Structure formats: structure tokens, C-alpha cells
Amino acid sequence: MKKIVFTGGGSAGHVTPNLALMARLKAAGWDTAYIGSKDGIEKEIVEHAGVPFHPIASGKLRRYFDVKNFKDPLNVLKGVGQSYRLLRRLKPDIVFSKGGFVSVPVIIGSWLNRIPVIIHESDYTPGLANKIAMPLATRVCVTFPETMRHVRRNKAVCTGLPIREQIVRGKALNGLSLCDFHKQKPVLLVVGGSLGAQKINEAVRASLDMLLGKFQIIHICGKGNVSAEHEGRRGYKQFEFVYEQLPDLFAASDAVVSRAGSTSIFELLALCKPMLLIPLTLQTSRGDQLLNAESFRKQGFARVLFEEDLTPESLLREVLETMKSGEELRQRMASATRLNGTDAILRLIDHRHRT
Ligand SMILES: CC(=O)N[C@H]1[C@@H](OP(=O)(O)OP(=O)(O)OC[C@H]2O[C@@H](n3ccc(=O)[nH]c3=O)[C@H](O)[C@@H]2O)O[C@H](CO)[C@@H](O)[C@@H]1O
């Protein structure tokens, strides 16, 4: 039986594209397993999808000072040892990595076992984990054509991002009834990335009275971030994290306010949803979301509001503008080439397995 091991995690953007590939490979008779961090979001998501999950120790690669920076290299080393032994036992034909810091020990473990590795980079510029992994990878798949220039030419393939098939199969009526919403007022979905975004959560709640005058609001606010004070308010529905119902919530929404994580914005592009993007700042990230957002703005798929300019008033103004330009944004998205990377990556996996 053909066997593949997946890795990737830290946040859901480094996990959900794997779900799209795993579903298809499982259906084609592959044996699939996952190696991820023992306390990362990937454990919950992968177990939820019914794929065997093998936890390892991992350390975060931080760009800022933290006492954990002294302990984490030891955890990464421990993770390399665990991955090496796991992979020697599992004996996969191939390893596929979606990036994130947990993937580094797994890729080193694969390389030590001489197992071919395909990695995928979601963002406009490669993340630190993928930069470390690239020399050890057989192939490097990318989402944006512009990312090809950061990868050695004989390894780079522009495949696009794998998107879960069910994302485009949501039912608006199910989404509305899940939130207890009606059809008379437009629906705004707010999602601050898979872990939630404090700044966006605060701005939404500070402008809630104004926003609720115009919209019904679905707010995916991240684990532990549901506000008890606003819970149960008519027209305002909060979720920490959503699994199967996400496609229905997407279908029920007229526009979306989102961080500019690559996985999210390509899903919204596939759905032609007018989006207002609030990218992570340079202070809190390497700036990848700023580039993702600028690329989408330039192509006419999204409006962008910088976090530095985020106030309750600017949020309301920009949401109204996004709704107003909804038809224009939708048309631009509908006429664009919208790559779903799933087929191209499956071909690479299959080809690698045969050679
Ligand atoms: C803080 C951080 O490191 N952010 C990075 C992370 O973002 P993050 O992990 O937030 O990733 P994205 O926003 O790109 O993707 C989130 C994924 O989670 C799913 N989802 C979200 C909410 C929910 O309730 N249920 C659910 O299933 C979305 O549909 C999507 O598939 O990875 C992205 C790469 O992909 C990067 O571009 C981001 O810069």
C-alpha cells in the first residue's frame, strides 16, 4: 500500500490545505498519517478528520526575545529524534509538509531516512520554517507565481493552494439558521485568522452598535475569545473555531472581514466573497500578510485596512465600502484564474512515488 506522512501546523493555515490532499489520497487508497506538535491546533483538526496523529516535541522559531528561546532549540532536537524514529517505523514513500515551525524536525527526520519531501509555501514570501526546509526538499510548491523567485529553479513548482472541496459546497440557509439569522439584513463574517485576532475582536465589539444597525454579524474570534458581555445579542453570533459548519457560514455571508492569511484569502477567492483584509503588521510578523493583502488589492479582489488605521469608525466605513463595491469585487474574482492546487500537487506526489 502507498503510504504518505503529512506535517505542518502551529496555526490552521498550515493544516487545512493538508486536509484537502489527505481526503483525496485516502479515497485513492493511500495510507495517510500526520506528524505534528503535541499541543498545536493541528492535533485537534487532524484527529477531527480521522487521520492517525503522531505528536512530537517542537519549538517555535521566534523573531523576538522570549525565555523559551533558550529551551526551544532542545525541543527541536528532541523532535528531530522522535521524527527520525517515527519515520523509520512508518516507512512512508513520501512526506508532504505544509510548513510552520513543527515541520522542521519532521523534514530533517525524513532527510536522515532518505525519504523524499515535498513542501508547500502558502505565502507571497517563504516563512522561516520553509526557508530552513527548502535545501532538504525534493520539490517546493508555491501559491503565488511571484514566490518562484525565492526558490531554486529546479525545485520550484507553482501549483496554487489546495482548497478543501467542501468549502464551496456550503448552504446559506443552514448558515443562517445556525446563527438564528434572517434574510432581511446582509450578513458580515469577521474572522481574525485561525487563532483569532485581539485587535480585530476589540474593534468589532467597540463598533457593534453601529455595525448591527446595518448587518447581522458572525464573529469567529478564536479559542477563549468569546465575549460573555456580548453573548446572546440579537444579530451577533460568536464562535471560537468552526469545523464542518464553516462552508455554511461562508455561504451565508455577503462580505468578510479577515486577516490576510494565505489559506483564508484563497478560500474566499474561490467563493468570490467580497473581502476587507486587515493584515498582520510588521511588528507582529515578517510582513507576509501585508504582501498577500497588497497582491489581492492590486488584482481587485479585496479592500485593505491597515491595523494602524483600525478604529471603530474606520472599520464601519470600510465595511460599508466593501459591501458597496461587492459586485465589482465579485466580478473581478469570478473572471480571475482561480487555481486550486489539489490536482497539481496530487500529480507531483504520484509522480514522485513512481520514480
Ligand atoms: C499568525 C500567523 O502565523 N498567521 C499565518 C497563518 O495564518 P492562519 O493559520 O490564521 O491561516 P489562514 O488564515 O491562512 O487559514 C486559516 C484556515 O483555518 C480555517 N478556519 C478558520 C477559522 C475557523 O473557525 N475554522 C477554520 O477551519 C480557514 O478556513 C483556513 O483554512 O498561516 C498563513 C499561511 O497559510 C499565513 O499566511 C499567516 O500569516
Automatic annotation (TrEMBL):
<dbReference type="InterPro" id="IPR007235">
    <property type="entry name" value="Glyco_trans_28_C"/>
</dbReference>
<keyword id="KW-0808">Transferase</keyword>
<feature type="binding site">
    <location>
        <position position="289"/>
    </location>
    <ligand>
        <name>UDP-N-acetyl-alpha-D-glucosamine</name>
    </ligand>
</feature>
<dbReference type="InterPro" id="IPR004276">
    <property type="entry name" value="GlycoTrans_28_N"/>
</dbReference>
<comment type="pathway">
    <text>Cell wall biogenesis; peptidoglycan biosynthesis.</text>
</comment>
<keyword id="KW-0131">Cell cycle</keyword>
<keyword id="KW-0328">Glycosyltransferase</keyword>
<keyword id="KW-0573">Peptidoglycan synthesis</keyword>
<feature type="binding site">
    <location>
        <position position="194"/>
    </location>
    <ligand>
        <name>UDP-N-acetyl-alpha-D-glucosamine</name>
    </ligand>
</feature>
<dbReference type="Pfam" id="PF03033">
    <property type="entry name" value="Glyco_transf_28"/>
</dbReference>
<keyword id="KW-1003">Cell membrane</keyword>
<comment type="similarity">
    <text>Belongs to the glycosyltransferase 28 family. MurG subfamily.</text>
</comment>
<comment type="function">
    <text>Cell wall formation. Catalyzes the transfer of a GlcNAc subunit on undecaprenyl-pyrophosphoryl-MurNAc-pentapeptide (lipid intermediate I) to form undecaprenyl-pyrophosphoryl-MurNAc-(pentapeptide)GlcNAc (lipid intermediate II).</text>
</comment>
<keyword id="KW-0132">Cell division</keyword>
<feature type="binding site">
    <location>
        <begin position="11"/>
        <end position="13"/>
    </location>
    <ligand>
        <name>UDP-N-acetyl-alpha-D-glucosamine</name>
    </ligand>
</feature>
<keyword id="KW-0961">Cell wall biogenesis/degradation</keyword>
<feature type="domain" description="Glycosyltransferase family 28 N-terminal">
    <location>
        <begin position="4"/>
        <end position="141"/>
    </location>
</feature>
<protein>
    <recommendedName>
        <fullName>UDP-N-acetylglucosamine--N-acetylmuramyl-(pentapeptide) pyrophosphoryl-undecaprenol N-acetylglucosamine transferase</fullName>
        <ecNumber>2.4.1.227</ecNumber>
    </recommendedName>
</protein>
<keyword id="KW-0472">Membrane</keyword>
<dbReference type="Pfam" id="PF04101">
    <property type="entry name" value="Glyco_tran_28_C"/>
</dbReference>
<feature type="binding site">
    <location>
        <position position="164"/>
    </location>
    <ligand>
        <name>UDP-N-acetyl-alpha-D-glucosamine</name>
    </ligand>
</feature>
<keyword id="KW-0133">Cell shape</keyword>
<feature type="domain" description="Glycosyl transferase family 28 C-terminal">
    <location>
        <begin position="187"/>
        <end position="337"/>
    </location>
</feature>
<dbReference type="InterPro" id="IPR006009">
    <property type="entry name" value="GlcNAc_MurG"/>
</dbReference>
